[in-house]
């Protein structure tokens, strides 16, 4: 698993979030590799956002994120190198967006999407 210290692109993040939001409750067997990958990238974005935007994530939520990331990486049969590459690409995109402004805006679209993803961790 990609080990993130407490837990990319704003437009891709929102597309991924809104496209994948319904997947959280979908039966595991019914999910395609693309759907699983979308969920994984959402979780990577949660961890990255916590680091670069200082968005809140409790220890319990971080544990759930780590467990789900491990599960998705296994189900997608990603090597550690593949998982790390995906994580690094997302992190670079998000850092670029942060520098451009807006990504870490507490009232912004990504902040709202992040809050929804974190809230969905309870389900």
The percent range for strand residues is under 5%
In which range does the helix fraction lie?
A: 55-70%
Distance between the termini: 22 Å
Q: Largest sheet at a glance?
A: none
SS content category = mainly alpha
DSSP E strands, number:
0
Explain what this protein looks like in three dimensions.
With 123 residues, the chain is an all-alpha fold. It has one domain (10-22, 31-120). The protein contains 5 helices and no strands. The chain is globular.
Top keywords for this entry?
123 residues, mainly alpha, disordered N terminus
Summarize the structure.
With 123 residues, this protein is mainly alpha-helical. It is 67% helix and 0% strand.
Write the layout of secondary structure elements.
Blueprint: H1 10-20, H2 33-53, H3 59-75, H4 80-100, H5 109-120
């Amino acid at each position: 698993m990609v080990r993130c210290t407490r837990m990319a692109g704003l437009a891709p993040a929102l597309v991924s979030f809104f496209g994948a939001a319904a997947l959280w409750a979908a039966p595991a067997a019914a999910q395609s590799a693309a759907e699983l990958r979308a969920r994984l990238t959402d979780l990577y974005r949660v961890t990255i956002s916590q680091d670069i935007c200082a968005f809140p994530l409790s220890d319990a939520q971080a544990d759930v994120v780590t467990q789900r990331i491990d599960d998705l990486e296994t189900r997608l049969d990603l090597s550690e190198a593949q998982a790390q590459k995906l994580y690094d690409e997302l992190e670079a995109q998000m850092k670029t967006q942060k520098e451009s402004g807006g990504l870490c805006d507490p009232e912004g679209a990504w902040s709202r999407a992040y809050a929804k993803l974190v809230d969905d961790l309870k389900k």
